[in-house]
Design goal:
The complex is a heterodimer of chains A (302) and B (65).
Chain A: H1 34-41, H2 51-109, E1 148-153, E2 163-167, E3 180-182, E4 193-198, E5 219-223, E6 227-239, E7 261-269, E8 276-289
Parallel strand pairs in A: 2-3, 4-7
Antiparallel strand pairs in A: 1-2, 1-5, 3-4, 5-6, 6-8, 7-8
Chain B: H1 2-8, H2 13-39
The chains are: A alpha+beta (302), B mainly alpha (65).
Chain lengths: 302, 65
């Protein structure tokens, strides 16, 4: 029990309560409180100090424990935030992709879904200006909430890209399932007006992850039960989230009467943020009846 | 906090390790299945539609979809 307590609770060098070594130069130390004098009387000695010193030391130990506890909580909070990022960027994709796959399977297995005949060759491309696509314009033809319009193919994003487009843009019930949402009240695929859609860009299956790669002339192919509607990208804009003008029947033209068949893609921008929206527009170039054959640009090299 | 838990957990050290791993796994599972999905819509990182409510930068100018 002759250990110097200062070994465990080091004091600043300037502390008037000198260490054992400092006792040798005691004369140089300015006259301190009684505690110092006691210590000087027994160099390297009593080891436990006075009552006042002990209380002080206990207080300090207490303070250290509290600060340590706060530190541990902050570290825990940091780990939780990190975990959240992992969940958001990795796990939501895993879950949403599984759900989207399931929904795509359901859509395609629907009995009205036409598969192009295998050996039929490529189907003729119909110009919508000459032969308007035979789409049902009646309100009854609009799917109910969460029901499917068809799927989207984008050859620029790979031939295997094929994501269901469903009615409504509810974030939790639709977009978070890795699906593309169709803005309620905008037109359906193939119709004159604006077929406006929205999807996640960085999370939940991120269907619109690669919008920035789309170039003018790239195909956006909406596959419905009976038809392929092929839109060609012609424009893009980065807007603030209140810019509903981008999904007007004639984009950016309030009150104009639509004459073209437009498709709109909206997603968040910049990536990992929600400050703005990235908007892509395509205009319908041609359509294909699936019963007449394959769509050439969706058939792979082999 | 963790030191206190470690000192007060019963059993030899390897039981403690197993126990702590189980608790951590349970916390991660709860976060992934319940807590994060609940908190996610309240955070503004995933807004992708235009004219959306509560998207942070909009207020009176917001138009309903």
């Amino acid at each position: 029990m002759t250990q110097d307590p200062d070994q465990f609770f080091p004091r600043p060098r300037w502390s008037p309560v000198g260490s054992g070594a400092a006792a040798g130069v005691a004369t140089a130390t300015p006259p301190g409180p009684t505690a110092t004098l006691d210590r000087l009387g027994a160099p390297g000695g009593t080891a436990r100090g006075t009552r006042r010193e002990r209380t002080e030391r206990r207080k300090r130990r207490h303070g250290a424990a509290v600060i340590g506890g706060i530190g541990e909580m902050l570290i825990t909070l940091g780990l939780l935030l990190g975990l959240y990022v992992v969940w958001e960027l990795v796990w939501t994709d895993v879950e949403a992709n599984a759900e989207a796959r399931e929904i795509r399977r359901e859509i395609v297995e629907d009995r009205t879904w036409v598969e192009p005949p295998v050996d039929s060759g490529f189907a003729p491309l119909h110009d919508p200006a000459v032969e308007p696509p035979p789409v049902d314009d009646s309100p009854l033809a609009t799917p109910a909430f969460g029901e499917s319009w068809g799927t989207l193919h984008v050859p620029r994003w790979g031939l295997e890209y094929n994501v269901p487009i469903v009615e409504d843009t509810d974030r939790v019930k639709i977009l978070n399932k890795g699906l593309i949402g169709h803005y309620v009240g905008t037109e359906g695929p193939g119709r004159v007006g604006n077929f406006a859609t929205s999807a996640h860009r960085t999370t939940y299956g991120k269907p619109y992850n690669r919008v920035a790669e789309l170039e003018d002339g790239d195909s956006l192919i909406v596959e419905t039960a009976q038809y392929f509607f092929v839109y060609k990208v012609y424009g893009r804009e980065i807007v603030y989230p209140d810019a509903v003008r981008v999904i007007l029947p004639v984009p950016n033209e309030e009150g104009a009467t639509p004459t073209q068949r437009i498709m709109t893609l909206t997603t968040c921008h910049p990536m990992f943020s929600a400050k703005q929206r990235y908007v892509i527009w395509g205009e319908m170039a041609y359509w294909v009846d699936k019963s007449e054959g394959q769509l050439e640009e969706l058939v792979g090299e082999g | 906090m963790y030191g206190w838990l470690w000192r007060h957990a019963p059993g030899p050290w390897w039981i403690k390790v197993v126990m702590f791993a189980a608790v951590v796994a349970a916390i991660v599972a709860i976060c992934f299945t319940t807590f994060f999905p609940w908190v996610s819509p309240l955070l503004p990182f995933n807004h992708v539609t235009v004219g959306e409510e509560g998207s942070g930068t909009t207020n009176e100018t917001t138009v309903e979809e």
